[in-house]
Amino acid sequence: GDKSEHTVLASHLSSLSKMPVAVPNYRLSPRQPPPPDSGIATLRHPTHTQDIVLALETIKVSQQTISVADTSRLFLVGHSCGAHMIASLVLDPPGGEGTQLDPPLSLDVYQSIKGLVAAEGIYDLMLLLKTFPDYRDFVEGAFPTTGSLEEYSVSRYLCRSGTAISWLLIQSPGDTLIDTPQAEAMYQHLRLEYERNGWDTNLIRRDFESVKGDHDELLSTLDFAKLVVSIL
Predict the structure, then answer these.
(1) Helix (H) or strand (E) holding 168
(2) How far apart are the C-alpha atoms of 138 and 11, rounded to whole Å?
(3) Do 61 and 96 form a contact (C-beta atoms < 8 A)?
């Protein structure tokens, strides 16, 4: 939905962290793609993520931002589809698979990202459809029709070389829309990737118990905000 719905969360995060908080919007894919002869372009991955790339690049260089924030230290928070999006910003699909960002996130912005919080996220698309087959229409509407959906599962993406980023994966046991196996699959994958790179696996944290509530309602709770700022 529209990110104006997250004003309570943004206020909580700013108050707790004493840091500026930006809540960028991005274009949405329709639940049902328009007919091929409609002349209406269908928004598919990675268009949504490209919008976030533009937002981050703007935040990084904006004098308005620089005057109130240290843009050399960025922390990203993504919820639901947003968790998939921020993961695809900092991870790369295996060679020849998926869809590369064009233009990609600049090295300057990438190196400024110190931590990611991914909450109630979608990471493994095939597992998602196995568990929730009714989601097929919106998943197929949001991703390219060429190739397998597995190619767009960030639970298969690879870490970039360079400095390791801190991760916090959050999942509520009360979420009825996305289940814990999604977060667990991503957690295990990230640990393997950090081991492969010789990085500290303690930078990968998970919390699947502390926050209560359903998929969207937990975002406005103070407990969720407190858990998010624990990554700082």
Answers:
(1) strand 166-170
(2) 31
(3) no
Other residues' Cβ atoms within 10 Å of the Cβ of residue 96 = 7
Q: What is the dihedral of CA 217, 25, 203, 107, to 10 degrees?
A: 180
User: Any idea which residue has 């814990």 for tokens?
Assistant: 180
Evaluate whether 149 touches 81 at the Cβ level (below 8 Å).
Answer: no
Lowest-confidence segment of 24-28, 157-161, 168-172 by average pLDDT: 24-28
Q: Which residue has the higher pLDDT, 185 or 71?
A: 185
Q: How far is CA 32 from CA 37, 43, 142, 147, 170, in A?
A: 14, 11, 9, 20, 29
Q: Which is nearest to 49 in space by CA: 142, 118, 145, 187?
A: 142
Conformation bin of residue 120: beta by default, left when phi > 0, alpha when psi is -120 to 50: left
What strands lie across the sheet with 74-79, from one edge to the other?
74-79, 113-119, 166-170, 204-207
Tens digit of each residue's pLDDT (9 = 90 or more) over 35-77: 667 666 678 888 899 999 999 999 998 877 878 888 899 999 9
3-state secondary structure of 81: helix
Taking 80 as the threshold, does the pLDDT of residue 147 lie above it?
no
Residue 86 CA to residue 63 CA, distance in Å, equals 24
For 35, half-sphere exposure in the C-beta direction (CA atoms, 13 angstrom radius) is: 2
Q: What is the pLDDT of residue 1?
A: 60
Instruction: Please write the tens of the pLDDT for every residue from 83-94.
Output: 999 999 999 988
